């Protein structure tokens, strides 16, 4: 605030200087005023008095030039009047400067008050902001501590769960390996058993095919004999209605019972093949969940395919035997 107070101090210094010069000048006049009846010529022509106020010396010279024939008393009174007027003029100027300096001082004081108030407002605002920042900082620190504690707890829980999962994974892996080994052994045993069953079924199917071929040849021979007999026999009389009596089964009937037995065997074989087919399909479905059983799964699929082919062959044989059975039955009744 020094720049505001500088004009005031300079004006006050000027005013003090003028007032001190005026008082010194009046004191000098009183000190140098001669006693009544003394000659004033030495005082008038004394140039040393001009050192108190330089402008007064110039006025004396001008007054001497204007009124050279004036008396000493008149010259002294005029000089005093001139000096008094000059002093009054200077006093008025000093009053004007003093009023200006007062107004400037008041303005400076007002500015100073405004600046102080603004400063107080800024200080109070900064203090409030500081308090708010400190409060927010404390809240953030407390929140950070809580979140760090919560994070540490969660991290410890996750580590514990991870360890438990690793232990359970190792246990489950060992168990799965044992189950996979057991599945492999069982599949190997089932494969061997299935191969053996297929071999036995193949033998039975071949035997049944031979028997079917033999049975298929017999009706043809009988049909040829019946045709020859019809050519030789004479014309028959009109048929007479006879009462049918129960008779024992003929050899052809016994042969029909043998065919029925073969058909039932083939039916049982078809049922067994269908059952094995369903079991193999279920095993393939169980192995689909294990990625390490691809080779065994392919083997089972091949076995299922072969079993399906055998099953179709057995069904075809069954249908053929049924046809042969009905054909032989028609020939027997004829």
Summarize, please:
This protein is an all-alpha fold and 334 residues long. It contains 6 helices and no strands.
Strands, helices and their partners?
Layout: H1 2-32, H2 41-44, H3 54-66, H4 72-232, H5 251-287, H6 294-333
Helix pairs in contact: 1-4, 3-4, 4-5, 4-6, 5-6
Coiled coil: 263-320
Biased composition (Basic and acidic residues): 224-233
Keywords: Coiled coil
Question: What can you tell me about this protein's structure?
Answer:
There is one protein chain. The protein has 334 residues and is mostly helical. Among the domains are: 108 residues, no CATH class; 82 residues. It is built from 6 helices and no strands. The two termini are 148 Å apart.
User: What overall geometry do the principal axes of the alpha carbons give?
Assistant: rod-shaped
How many extended strands? 0
Termini distance?
Answer: 148 Å
Compute the average pLDDT.
69
Structural class: mainly alpha
Count of alpha/pi helices: 6
Largest sheet: none
- Gyration radius (Cα, Å) is 74 Å
Which H/E pattern describes the elements?
HHHHHH
Helix proportion: over 70%
Poorly predicted runs: 1-19, 31-70, 229-256
Strand content: under 5%
Features:
334 residues, mainly alpha, 6 helices, 86% helix, disordered N terminus, coiled coil
């Amino acid at each position: 605030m020094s720049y505001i107070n500088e004009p005031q101090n300079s004006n006050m210094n000027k005013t003090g200087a003028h007032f001190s010069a005026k008082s010194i000048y009046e004191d000098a006049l009183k000190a140098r005023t001669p006693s009544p009846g003394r000659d004033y010529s030495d005082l008038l022509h004394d140039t040393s008095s001009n050192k108190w106020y330089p402008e007064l010396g110039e006025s004396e010279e001008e007054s001497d030039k204007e009124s050279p024939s004036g008396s000493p008393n008149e010259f002294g009174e005029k000089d005093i009047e001139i000096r008094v007027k000059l002093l009054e003029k200077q006093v008025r100027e000093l009053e004007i400067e003093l009023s200006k300096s007062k107004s400037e001082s008041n303005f400076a004081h007002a500015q100073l008050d405004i600046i102080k108030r603004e400063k107080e407002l800024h200080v109070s605002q900064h203090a409030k902001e500081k308090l708010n920042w400190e409060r927010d900082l404390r809240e953030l620190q407390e929140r950070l501590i809580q979140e760090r504690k919560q994070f540490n707890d969660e991290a410890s829980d996750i580590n514990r769960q991870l360890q438990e999962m690793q232990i359970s994974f190792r246990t489950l892996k060992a168990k799965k390996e044992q189950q996979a080994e057991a599945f492999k052994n069982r599949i190997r045993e089932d494969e061997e058993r299935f191969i053996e069953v297929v071999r036995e079924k193949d033998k039975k199917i071949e035997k049944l095919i031979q028997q079917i071929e033999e049975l298929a040849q017999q009706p043809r021979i009988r049909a040829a004999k019946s045709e020859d007999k019809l050519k030789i026999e004479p014309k028959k009389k009109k048929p007479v209605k006879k009462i049918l009596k129960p008779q024992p089964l003929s050899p052809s009937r016994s042969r029909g019972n043998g065919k029925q037995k073969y058909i039932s065997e083939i039916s049982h074989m078809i049922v067994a093949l269908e059952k094995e087919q369903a079991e193999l399909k279920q095993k393939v479905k169980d192995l689909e969940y294990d990625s390490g059983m691809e080779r065994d799964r392919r083997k089972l699929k091949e076995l299922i395919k072969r079993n399906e082919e055998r099953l179709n062959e057995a069904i075809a044989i069954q249908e053929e035997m049924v046809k042969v059975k009905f054909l032989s039955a028609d020939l027997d009744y004829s």
